[in-house]
Amino acid sequence: MQIGEILKNKTFGKQQGQPRNEREEFLQLSLERINISRIDTKYKPLSFLALKLKTQYLSDKDLKWLYFHCEKSDNFSRLFFGLLKPKI
Q1: Three-point CA angle 37, 45, 28, nearest 5°
Q2: How far apart are CA 15 and CA 69, in angstroms?
């Protein structure tokens, strides 16, 4: 067996698609809702890393509030990114 095949079959730490903690779970749920709303638009699907960087300054409590507040809205993506914008 070649080294490339061994590395390809090996999982490093966590299984693909399994959230490690509650924060990643809410980010994954948000990402799914955002990407669903982007299907028929000019916007490309958002990556998990991009969403993680946009929400890095939020606490877990604030992230939960943001998710549940946006879930009640008609347009999840618009409200999500609208609330993330800094207010001057």
Answers
A1: 80
A2: 30
